[in-house]
């Protein structure tokens, strides 16, 4: 068969030539007949001609003569109605819709006309998203386990069995709340009643609201992998994103919480982001996140930061001489789902949480960069309101002084007991100072919370891993001093540079675990700001990891 080209000839002519050259072959007779019938279709030839005409018209760059053909046609129709019977102009009026389309294109006004926003618009944004799932089963189980909250009556999916009906559907996820099954409400249903309904399931109505805290910065315009950079959603580390759909395993659609823009944007999925970070690390373009550099503040932090020592005992300017034990540096929270446990930081699923009256107060954790003097800040806030705030009494191996009381300044223990407790991982952190051991235990924190007091601790950032549990639900405040830019003597300038670098390094390594950054101008203003934060913790809701609530 000769080669056909569509250079000067039109597509419909090329198609006609191709059809004429199709000859039945003994081996492929049926295929040739089928192709000839398809290419000989008159409608296909018409479509080709229309395509050619449109391409020719497009090359002419046509512009509309006017933008109001529809209104002009209405005026003409009115004039004609006055001079002739209506029936004579019915054909003309039937093209009114085509003229309206012409005007829309000419004016380039393609956006739909939306009704005005209601007065309670902000309230409506907080409404729960609901999805309806229909599952077709062949006498097989749903393939999911459920749990019921005795306090609220909410029924949630606890586990998805691989290969079951729920897993194959891809529509049911762990944490989804079952609202209805076959039109029957699940609220306050007994487990046996729910199980019976799930046997004859045809439709489930579930609440699905997925919120993720971003643990990295994302700029779509710099992402060459995104399918559409203009459709991407930029965000910064710490932003809370509402994921509206995860249908695409590579690109989720999400909105920033608090953003007035109602349109969702594309963000890389957790799995995709982790895969490409792993690839970059393999290629050597990304440092290994498992071996971060230790911030300079670990070795140069002022002794007054040391929460084990009462305020006023530390000589000014003396540097911290102890080191955290190797075991504490590694950390072992026991939960295994902290964002710090994963190889790459991408997203952390979060939910709104407000402390209830019967619950223990949340733990407040202070971390500070060089020069922040957070122990002094902590002691000042507690002294103002000792009935509401308290510190966890530390343990020590040093001898008790005459004026000291057991369990007030310290828990005084033997070196053997201290070493045994450290070996059993009972301290959130511990260290040595002047040949004596000091440490803050988990039980000391629980003792404060059992008195319904808000416990405030200041720790090395590495200890956050031990504290980020559903039991403590810590609120982490990063305190850093405002470093002036003015240059004085050389030694002072070097010290300011150390303070600045310390804050940068802690932010880079632990900023994803921080709930609030407090810039310390002076002790008085920092104390007022910290006190305001502590008061709001009791009456306002905050974003927390979802695993802290769904336990």
Automatic annotation (TrEMBL):
Residues 361-535 form the Guanylate kinase-like domain. Signal peptide: none annotated. Residues 324-346 are annotated as: Disordered. PANTHER family: MEMBRANE-ASSOCIATED GUANYLATE KINASE MAGUK. Belongs to the MAGUK family. This is Uncharacterized protein. Residues 7-62 form the L27 domain. It comes from Mola mola (Ocean sunfish). Transmembrane segments: none annotated. The lineage of its organism: Eukaryota, Metazoa, Chordata, Craniata, Vertebrata.
């Amino acid at each position: 068969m000769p080669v056909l080209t569509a250079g000067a000839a039109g597509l419909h002519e090329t198609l006609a030539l191709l059809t004429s050259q199709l000859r039945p072959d003994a081996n492929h007779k049926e295929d040739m007949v089928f192709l000839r019938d398809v290419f000989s279709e008159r409608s296909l030839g018409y479509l080709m001609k229309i395509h050619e005409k449109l391409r020719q018209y497009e090359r002419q760059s046509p512009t509309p003569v006017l933008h109001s053909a529809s209104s002009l046609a209405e005026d003409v129709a009115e004039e004609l109605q006055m001079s002739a019977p209506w029936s004579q102009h019915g054909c003309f009026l039937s093209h009114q819709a085509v003229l309206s389309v012409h005007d829309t294109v000419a004016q380039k006004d393609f956006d739909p006309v939306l009704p005005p926003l209601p007065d309670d618009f902000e309230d409506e944004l907080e409404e729960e998203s609901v999805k309806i799932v229909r599952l077709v089963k062949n006498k097989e189980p749903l393939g999911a386990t459920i749990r019921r909250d005795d306090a609220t009556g909410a029924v949630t999916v606890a586990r998805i069995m691989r290969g079951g009906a729920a897993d194959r559907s891809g529509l049911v996820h762990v944490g989804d709340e079952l609202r209805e099954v076959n039109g029957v409400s699940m609220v306050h249903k007994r487990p046996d009643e729910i199980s019976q309904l799930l046997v004859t399931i045809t439709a489930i109505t579930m609440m699905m609201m997925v919120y993720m805290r971003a643990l990295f910065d994302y700029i779509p315009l710099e992402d060459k992998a995104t399918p559409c950079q203009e459709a991407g959603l930029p965000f910064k580390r710490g932003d809370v994103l509402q994921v509206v759909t995860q249908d695409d395993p590579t690109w989720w659609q999400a909105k920033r919480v608090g953003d007035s823009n109602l349109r969702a944007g594309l963000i890389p999925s957790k799995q995709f982001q982790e895969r490409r970070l792993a690839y970059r690390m393999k290629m050597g373009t990304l440092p290994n996140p498992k071996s971060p550099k230790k911030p300079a503040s670990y070795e140069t932090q002022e002794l007054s930061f040391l929460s084990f020592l009462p305020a006023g005992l530390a000589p000014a300017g003396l540097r911290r001489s102890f080191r955290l034990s190797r075991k504490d540096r590694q950390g072992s929270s026991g939960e295994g789902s902290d964002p710090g446990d994963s190889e790459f930081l991408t997203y952390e699923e979060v939910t709104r949480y407000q402390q209830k009256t019967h619950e223990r107060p949340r733990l407040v954790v202070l971390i500070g960069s060089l020069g922040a003097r957070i122990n002094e800040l902590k002691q000042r806030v507690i002294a103002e309101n000792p009935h509401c705030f308290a510190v966890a009494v530390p343990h020590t191996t040093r001898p008790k002084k005459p004026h000291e009381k057991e369990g007030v300044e310290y828990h005084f223990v033997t070196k053997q007991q201290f070493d045994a407790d450290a070996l059993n991982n009972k301290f959130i952190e511990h260290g040595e100072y002047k040949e004596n051991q000091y440490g803050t235990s988990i039980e000391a924190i629980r003792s404060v919370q059992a008195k319904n007091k808000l416990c405030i601790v200041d720790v090395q950032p590495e200890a956050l891993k031990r504290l980020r549990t559903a039991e403590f639900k810590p609120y982490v405040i990063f305190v850093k001093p405002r470093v002036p830019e003015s240059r004085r003597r050389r030694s002072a300038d070097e010290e300011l540079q150390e303070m600045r670098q310390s804050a940068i390094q802690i932010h880079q390594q632990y900023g994803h675990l921080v709930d609030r950054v407090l810039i310390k101008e002076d002790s008085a203003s920092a104390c007022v700001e910290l006190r305001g934060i502590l008061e709001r913790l009791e009456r306002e809701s905050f974003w927390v990891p979802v695993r802290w609530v769904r336990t």
